[in-house]
């Protein structure tokens, strides 16, 4: 046997050896059918009515094409309208073998046409050796489901919802902002990303301590500092849908609760310019009563009740984002932790943020002789990223564009000096 094995290894090509081994394993497996366990996975749990979608079936449908290797010769391929890439699917009555932790699990898509219906019925058959029963139920099937959830999150098209009348209208969020393209201080970016990641992985902690699984952010700073872009970057990073809630369209506390109750989990609810909204009424007993009834506008108490009251438990894995240009105008009751957990100051552009803009708009990732001069001017002037970005788009040549930025910032600095001199020399009235 040793001589025979040596001769086979030396004389028979590797691909042919693998083919022979596969055929032999398949041949002998027929005589060991009594040791095989088969699980039937229907598309719906109730096959007669078609109700109760079976998540495991759909998980296998998406998971198995990712396990198909080059030796698999029968598979379906297509291009769907809402997909950017080609999609693959398992063809019926052909086996797909998946290896997990050293064990083999065999899948087959069984296609049958029942007598009382012209439509085919699809069922996945998962087979494995009876010794692997515990591994299959406790580790392999959960692995398939986890992989499916990760694939869904990766492929998800982020939506943005706006409220019209009494319902949410949706469209695709096409804003291209990411954390890589935001003109923010790198340390601030890192702290935001770390906070988001920490929030996502703490589901069990929130449950254990009795807190709703949500997080509140306050974005404040002058107009044009990137508050909307930061919201889009968070949505694209987390693959969370965005609900843009205009408080001027909310007529009462009950209307506010109804609007938020109709949002989905894993979403971002954005309330912009919270300090400018005139519909929020004082927190008095009379205004609370009117807010739930026929009065105009809702109360601050109604908003607070959603943020950390009994209504805050409606839904989970939610992020609340409030934006304002004037933080000092916001009622202090909104600012405490548990309501607005992280306060993010989006201020005027500085040198580190300008490097990001130079990379985005001009393709300059290294050093440039004018960078230091621009950094010095940015320390003396108050200019937003939006204004600088608009100037960067005026020239195609990077050097000419930077020269224009230097000229613009120099003029701003000179004007600031004149204004300062005028203020100090003019007597007050």
UniProtKB/TrEMBL annotation:
InterPro entries, per the entry: AAA+_ATPase, AAA_N_dom, At3g28540-like_C, ATPase_AAA_core, ATPase_AAA_CS, Mitochondrial_chaperone_BCS1, P-loop_NTPase
UniProt KW keywords? ATP-binding, Hydrolase, Magnesium, Nucleotide-binding
Q: Which GO terms describe its biological process?
A: response to stress
SUPFAM superfamilies membership: P-loop containing nucleoside triphosphate hydrolases
- Cofactor(s) named in the record: Mg(2+)
Q: Which reaction does it catalyse?
A: ATP + H2O = ADP + phosphate + H(+)
Statement: the UniProt record of this protein carries the keyword ATP-binding: yes
Keyword Cell cycle applies:
no
Name the Pfam families for this protein: AAA, AAA_assoc, AAA_lid_At3g28540
GO terms of molecular function: ATP binding; ATP hydrolysis activity
* Domain spans labelled AAA+ ATPase: 213-350
Top-level taxon of origin: Eukaryota
Q: Which CDD domains match?
A: RecA-like_BCS1
So what family is this one in? Belongs to the AAA ATPase family. BCS1 subfamily.
Protein's recorded name: AAA+ ATPase domain-containing protein
Q: Which organism is it from?
A: Arachis hypogaea
């Amino acid at each position: 046997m040793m001589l025979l094995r040596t001769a086979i290894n030396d004389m028979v090509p590797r691909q042919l050896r693998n083919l022979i081994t596969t055929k032999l394993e398949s041949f002998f497996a027929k005589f060991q059918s009594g040791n095989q366990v088969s699980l039937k996975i229907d598309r719906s749990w109730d096959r007669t009515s078609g109700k109760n979608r079976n998540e495991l079936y759909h998980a296998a449908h998406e998971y198995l094409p990712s396990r198909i290797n080059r030796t698999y010769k029968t598979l379906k391929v297509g291009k769907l309208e809402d997909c950017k890439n080609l999609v693959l699917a398992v063809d019926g009555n052909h086996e797909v073998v998946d290896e997990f932790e050293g064990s083999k699990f065999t899948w087959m898509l069984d296609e049958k046409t029942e007598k009382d219906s012209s439509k085919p019925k699809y069922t996945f058959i998962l087979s494995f050796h009876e010794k692997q029963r515990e591994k299959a139920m406790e580790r392999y099937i959960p692995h398939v489901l986890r992989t499916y959830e990760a694939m869904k999150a990766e492929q998800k098209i982020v939506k943005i919802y706006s409220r019209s009348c009494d319902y949410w209208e949706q469209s695709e969020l096409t804003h291209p902002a990411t954390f890589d393209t935001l003109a923010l201080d790198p340390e601030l970016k890192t702290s935001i990303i770390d906070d988001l990641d920490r929030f996502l992985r703490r589901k069990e902690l929130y449950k254990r301590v009795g807190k709703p699984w949500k997080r509140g952010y306050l974005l404040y700073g002058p107009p044009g500092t990137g508050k909307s872009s930061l919201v889009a970057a968070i949505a694209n990073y987390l693959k969370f849908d965005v609900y843009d809630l205009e408080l001027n369209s909310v007529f009462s506390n009950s209307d506010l609760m109804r609007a938020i109750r109709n949002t989905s989990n894993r979403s971002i609810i954005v309330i912009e310019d919270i300090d400018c909204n005139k519909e929020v009424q004082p927190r008095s007993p009379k205004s609370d009563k009117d807010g739930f009834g026929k009065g105009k506008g809702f109360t601050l108490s109604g908003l607070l009740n959603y943020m950390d009251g009994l209504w805050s438990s409606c839904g989970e894995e939610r992020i609340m984002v409030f934006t304002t240009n004037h933080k000092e105008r916001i009622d202090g009751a909104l600012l405490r932790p548990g309501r607005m957990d992280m306060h993010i100051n989006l201020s005027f552009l500085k040198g580190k943020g300008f490097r990001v803009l130079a990379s985005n708009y001009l393709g300059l990732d290294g050093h440039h002789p004018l960078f230091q001069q621009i950094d010095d001017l940015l320390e003396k002037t108050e200019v937003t990223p939006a204004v600088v970005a608009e100037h960067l788009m005026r020239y195609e040549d990077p050097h000419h564009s930077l020269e224009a930025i230097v000229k613009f910032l120099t003029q701003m600095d000179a004007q600031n000096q004149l204004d300062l001199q005028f203020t100090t020399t003019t007597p007050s009235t």
